[in-house]
Design goal:
Strand order of the largest sheet of chain A: 2-1-3-4
Oligomer: heterodimer
Structural class of chain B: alpha/beta
Low-confidence stretches of chain B: none
Number of domains of chain A: 2
Number of strands of chain B: 10
Order of helices and strands of chain A: HHEHEHEHEHHHHHHHHHHH
Strand content of chain A: 5-15%
Number of helices of chain A: 16
Largest interface: A-B, 23 and 32 residues
C-alpha cells in the first residue's frame, strides 16, 4: 500500500474512533435520519382526509340522502347536518367546518327527470382562508361527484353525455395512480437527509480539529491536504450510506413505496451525491475553522437547498426563470429528480443522464475545493 | 541522520494588524539545545511556527542545513518534530493510540516503533498510563505524551513551544531530562520559554522582545554581557 493510501486509512481510522466515542455525533448521524423518516413519512400527509363539511339538505328526498351517503362513504368528508343556513354560516365563522354543502330543492326530482336543461343543483361554499385545503376539498368533491354521477346515470338511466359532458374525459394518473403524497415525499427523503445531515456532520470535523488545537500538530507532520480530506470523508461516507440504505428499506417495507428503477444506478447516484454533500461540509469547515460558524453555514447550505430549491415541496417548474436556473447550482435539485424517477418509474439511463451529470460535477468541484482550501499551514 | 541546523534571516511577519516579528535574524547551530526566551507577546510562537513551516515569513527566509548542505523546506519538514504550546492532542485517544497514530503518520516500521515506544514510555514514566485518554492526563503527563509523539520519529530538529508552561516543578525537571536525553549530535532542539531560569539549561540562548532579537549567546556570555545572573534583567535593561 502506498504512503498516500496508508495515511488516508490512518486519518479515516482515527475519525472512526472519534465518531464511535462521541455519543452526540453518533446519535445525530444514526437517529436523525430515522426521525426525519418518521416525521415526514407519518406525520406530514398532504392528503387531507375527513374534511369537516356542514350540509344543508333543502331537498330531503331519498335521492339527496343517497347522494350524501355516497359522498360520506368516499372518506374524504365528515358530513354534519346543519339546521338552517344561519347555523351553517355560524359553523363556518367559528371555523368548525371547512365548508358548507347546500342541496337545492328538487334535487331528487331533477335527477329522476334526467333533463339536462334542468339539472340537479347543489352548492359548495368553501373556506378560502386556507387555499390549499380549499383546493384539495374542491378536487375531492369533483372526484366524488364524477363517481356519484356515473352511479346515478347507471341507476336512473339519465343521459350521461348530456348531463355531464366532462364525464367523457377519463383521467388516469401514471406512476402514482392514487396521487398518494407519501409516494411523492418518501422517495425525496434521501435528498433531504443527505443534503442536510451530511453537510452538518463534516462541517464540524475540521473545525473541531482547529478548535482543539490538534490541526496545528497534524499540519506540522508530512501529511498532505488530500490525505486529510479523503481520510475525513470516508467514515462519514459509510455512516451516511448506511442512513440512506436504512431509509431505502423503510421506504419499501414500512411505507410500501414501489421501487421500479435500477438499484445499482440508485446506489451509484447516492454515493456521488453523498460525496458532494460531505465535501461541501468539509469546505465550510476548512474555511470557517470554527464549529459555531461552521454549523450555522452548514444549516444555511443544507436546509435551504434541501427544502426550498430542490423541488421537495415547491415544484421547480413553477419558480421564476432566475430561480429555475439558480436551483441548478444545488445537487439537491438533481438528486431529488433522480430519486423520484428511480422509485416511481423505470426511467432509462438517457433520461437520468442530465441529473446524474449535475451531481457528478458538483461532487468533483467540492472535493477539489476542499483539498485546495485545506491549507497545510496555520496562516489565517 | 545528523542534526538539522537552521538560520533565520531577517524575517518579518504580521499577524493581522499586529507585527509579530520585525527583521529577526538568528542562527541555530546543529546538535545543540537552543532556548528562545522572552516575555509574553515577544513573537516566540510566531518564530516557532515559521521554523516549523506552518507560517510563511512576509520578508526574509528560514534556511535549513544538513551536514553543511542546504535543505528544502519540504524536506526539512519531514525530519522536524514540532509540539505546539496550545493543547493539540486528541482528548479521546489514549496515549498508546497517539503513539500508533504518529507511528503510521511518520511511516515508522514496527520493530523501530517497538524499541522507541518502549524507551520513551520508560523514560517518561508513562508506561502505566498507556491506556489512559489524553483528555484525562495531568498537565505534566499531557506534555510528556506530546513530546513522546514528536520524538517517536527521531527528528533531526525538535521544536518545543513553551513545553513547561503550566507544569509542576517536578514534571518540568523530568521534561528537561527527557530533552537532554535525546538532544545531541543527531538532534537540534529549539525550545521557547518564558521561565527565565530555564534559559540556564540551554547551550545557547536567544532573547526576543516585541518581535525583535535582543541578544544571543551562551548563558555565560549573556550574563557577562548584561552583568546579571537573572535573565529577566536583559528585558528590563532593554525596556
Amino acid at each position: 500500500m502506498s504512503v498516500f493510501l496508508r495515511r488516508v486509512r490512518l486519518i479515516a481510522l482515527k475519525e472512526y474512533k472519534h465518531i464511535l466515542r462521541d455519543p452526540f455525533t453518533l446519535a445525530v448521524a444514526l437517529l436523525l435520519p430515522l426521525l426525519f423518516v418518521l416525521f415526514f413519512g407519518f406525520i406530514i400527509d398532504l392528503d387531507y382526509k375527513h374534511i369537516p363539511l356542514v350540509v344543508r339538505d333543502n331537498d330531503q328526498s331519498p335521492l339527496s340522502r343517497r347522494f350524501l351517503r355516497q359522498l360520506s362513504a368516499a372518506g374524504y368528508f365528515d358530513l354534519a347536518p346543519a339546521h338552517g343556513m344561519l347555523a351553517a354560516q355560524a359553523a363556518l365563522r367559528r371555523n368548525d367546518t371547512a365548508g358548507v354543502l347546500v342541496i337545492k330543492k328538487d334535487f331528487g326530482k331533477n335527477i329522476m327527470k334526467g333533463d339536462f336543461t334542468a339539472p340537479a343543483r347543489a352548492q359548495l361554499l368553501l373556506d378560502g382562508s386556507d387555499n390549499t385545503k380549499a383546493a384539495m376539498a374542491q378536487a375531492y368533491m369533483t372526484g366524488a361527484l364524477l363517481k356519484i354521477n356515473a352511479d346515478f346515470t347507471r341507476l336512473y338511466h339519465a343521459d350521461a353525455a348530456a348531463a355531464n359532458p366532462d364525464a367523457l374525459v377519463r383521467t388516469r394518473f401514471l406512476f402514482n395512480p392514487e396521487l398518494n403524497s407519501r409516494w411523492f415525499i418518501v422517495p425525496a427523503l434521501n435528498t433531504v437527509i443527505i443534503g442536510f445531515l451530511a453537510i452538518v456532520l463534516t462541517a464540524l470535523t475540521v473545525a473541531r480539529e482547529w478548535e482543539n488545537g490538534s490541526m496545528e500538530l497534524l499540519l506540522s507532520t508530512p501529511v498532505r491536504a488530500a490525505e486529510i480530506v479523503l481520510g475525513k470523508l470516508i467514515p462519514y461516507f459509510t455512516l451516511t450510506l448506511f442512513d440512506v440504505l436504512a431509509v431505502f428499506v423503510l421506504s419499501l417495507y414500512v411505507f410500501g413505496i414501489p421501487f421500479l428503477g435500477s438499484f445499482v444506478l440508485f446506489t451509484f447516484a447516492c454515493c456521488v451525491y453523498i460525496t458532494g454533500a460531505l465535501a461541501l461540509g468539509l469546505v465550510i469547515s476548512v474555511i470557517t475553522r470554527n464549529q459555531q460558524a461552521a454549523i450555522q453555514f452548514a444549516f444555511a447550505a443544507g436546509l435551504l437547498p434541501s427544502f426550498i430549491f430542490s423541488g421537495f415541496i415547491f415544484p421547480v417548474e413553477n419558480m421564476p426563470l432566475f430561480f429555475r436556473i439558480f436551483t441548478g447550482l444545488f445537487p439537491q435539485r438533481w438528486f431529488l429528480s433522480l430519486s423520484r424517477s428511480m422509485f416511481l418509474s423505470e426511467a432509462s439511463f438517457a433520461a437520468l443522464a442530465g441529473p446524474m451529470a449535475g451531481i457528478i460535477i458538483f461532487a468533483g468541484v467540492m472535493v477539489f475545493a476542499a483539498v485546495k482550501k485545506l491549507k497545510t499551514d496555520v496562516e489565517p | 541522520m545528523p542534526a538539522l541546523g537552521a538560520e533565520v534571516k531577517n524575517i518579518s511577519k504580521k499577524m493581522g494588524a499586529a507585527t509579530a516579528l520585525r527583521g529577526v535574524s538568528l542562527q541555530f547551530e546543529s546538535g545543540r539545545v537552543h532556548g528562545i526566551i522572552g516575555p509574553n507577546g515577544a513573537g516566540k510562537t510566531t518564530l516557532m511556527r515559521c521554523l516549523a513551516g506552518l507560517l510563511r515569513a512576509d520578508e526574509g527566509e528560514v534556511v535549513y542545513s544538513l551536514d553543511g548542505r542546504r535543505l528544502s523546506s519540504a524536506r526539512a519538514k519531514e525530519i522536524t518534530g514540532y509540539f505546539p504550546q496550545e493543547p493539540s492532542l486528541y482528548p479521546d485517544l489514549s496515549c498508546m493510540e497517539h503513539l500508533l497514530f504518529f507511528r503510521d503518520l511518520y511511516n515508522i516500521n514496527r520493530s523501530d516503533f517497538e524499541t522507541r515506544s518502549r524507551e520513551l514510555l520508560a523514560a517518561t514514566g508513562m508506561a502505566p498510563f498507556a491506556a489512559r485518554a489524553a483528555g484525562k492526563l495531568s498537565g505534566g503527563m499531557y506534555k510528556k505524551l506530546g513530546l513522546m509523539c514528536v520524538l517517536l520519529n527521531r527528528p533531526s530538529l525538535l521544536l518545543l513551544d513553551e513545553p513547561t508552561i503550566g507544569v509542576d516543578p517536578l514534571s518540568r525537571r523530568q521534561l528537561w531530562d527527557l530533552i537532554y536525553k535525546f538532544a545531541g549530535e543527531s538532534m537540534t532542539v529549539i525550545i521557547t520559554t518564558s521561565y527565565m531560569d530555564e534559559a540556564a539549561a540551554c547551550a545557547k540562548v536567544h532573547a526576543l522582545d516585541e518581535g525583535r532579537a535582543l541578544a544571543a549567546g551562551t548563558p555565560a556570555e549573556l550574563r557577562a554581557r548584561f552583568h546579571t545572573d537573572n535573565f529577566a534583567d536583559i528585558f528590563l535593561q532593554n525596556g
